[in-house]
Amino acid sequence: MLSALGYHRSVLAYVRRVDEHAWAALRGGPVGGVGDVLLRNAYRLEESAHPAVHQAGRRAAEALGVDAEVEFFQVRGNGDANAFYLHQDGKAIVVFEGSLLDQLEPGELTAVMGHELAHRVLWDAEDGAYLAVDRLLDAAAGDARTPAQYLETHRRWGLATELYADRGALTACGDLSTTVRALLKLQTGLSTADPEAYLRQADELDLSTGSRGTTHPEGVARAWALKNWLAGEDVESLITGPLDVDAPDLLDAVVLRELSADFAAWIAQTDGLRTDAVATFAAGFTDRPLGEPGTSFPRFDEPLAVRPVDGAPLPRPRPLTEATKRYLCYLLLDLATADPDTGDAGLVASLAIARRARLTSYDDLADDELGWSDKRRAKLTQAADEVVG
Question: Where is the Peptidase M48 domain (predicted)?
Answer without folding.
Answer: 50-229
